[in-house]
Amino acid sequence: MNLPRTALPAEWEPQAAILIAWPHADTDWAPRLSQVERTYVALAAAIARFQTAVICVADAELEQDVCRQLDSAGVDLDRVRFVQRAYDDTWLRDSGPITLRTADGFRLLDFRFTGWGGKFEASRDDELVAGLVRDGVFVDAEHRRIDWALEGGAIESDGHGTILTTWRCLHQRHPDSSREAIEATLRDALAADRVLWLDHGYLQGDDTDAHIDTLARFAPNDAIVYQQCDDVSDPHHAELERMRRELEALRTRDGHAYRLHPLPWAAPVVDEGRRLAASYANYLVLNDAVLAPAYDDPSDDVAAAVLAAAHPDRRVVQIPCRPLIWQNGSLHCVTMQLPAGLLSTS
């Protein structure tokens, strides 16, 4: 197979670091800050076991506090790098850089971030990538600002020029554009030659308008891991069954069906009358591990086993994510991988 010289790497390709932003009292996490910080400590500790964690903090005071928390948890601080930068929220999957590997190095794609279609204030998050470039976080890479709304959680790449996405999300961001026009933009910006669309699939409690990373994820060797719902009484059942049939109909570049790995369905998580999106598809791949969301549910271990089967060369580490879904996202949503070679040494 002739691979494109420029491509969006698959998440399981070699990484330099994982980028996260720490929650603090001036973010929407404030009412439950202590709970979510425990999740972030567990997340940072897991990342640092395998590679570098780059942590955005709002100021020096927060950096000192985070250092104290991580040190108390036994985290190797030599594998943690701090960047002081203002941010509105901590969902770096959607405001962080989407990085292409090119023949000359890297291209940092800086799409317009609109707070998921204008739902939330996002002006500082929209400046995040440019700020990180100025801060010297990356090697000398091309920084390309693209005045077109796209979040990292809305796309999946197999590393070979195929993008998987959902029509529900992209149509919401660009209601006046046709599918053909949106696809052309994705192909051009992401150096892709195939775009696979899902027309079905959603989760209550997800305010991203059906990001693909809550529903279905590429895995190595022409596989897709997806969130199923086997509870026929659940309101998600019919829609996720339609999505499953769509996934079964997709074909690889060589014309074969994808190997499908269905994830179990967690019991409904309800907070103050609101259903939360407890998706196991929102996992994170590291160099030698897969971080799996856990929701204090009997299905947690089943989901971990599915992820181990889809990524057999990696250790599965569970991260407690119930505090994250209170704010409508989960593990993958708060992280962004940085490809190997992208992180500066200064």
TrEMBL record:
<dbReference type="GO" id="GO:0047632">
    <property type="term" value="F:agmatine deiminase activity"/>
</dbReference>
<protein>
    <submittedName>
        <fullName>Agmatine deiminase</fullName>
    </submittedName>
</protein>
<dbReference type="Pfam" id="PF04371">
    <property type="entry name" value="PAD_porph"/>
</dbReference>
<keyword id="KW-0378">Hydrolase</keyword>
<dbReference type="GO" id="GO:0004668">
    <property type="term" value="F:protein-arginine deiminase activity"/>
</dbReference>
<dbReference type="InterPro" id="IPR007466">
    <property type="entry name" value="Peptidyl-Arg-deiminase_porph"/>
</dbReference>
<dbReference type="GO" id="GO:0009446">
    <property type="term" value="P:putrescine biosynthetic process"/>
</dbReference>
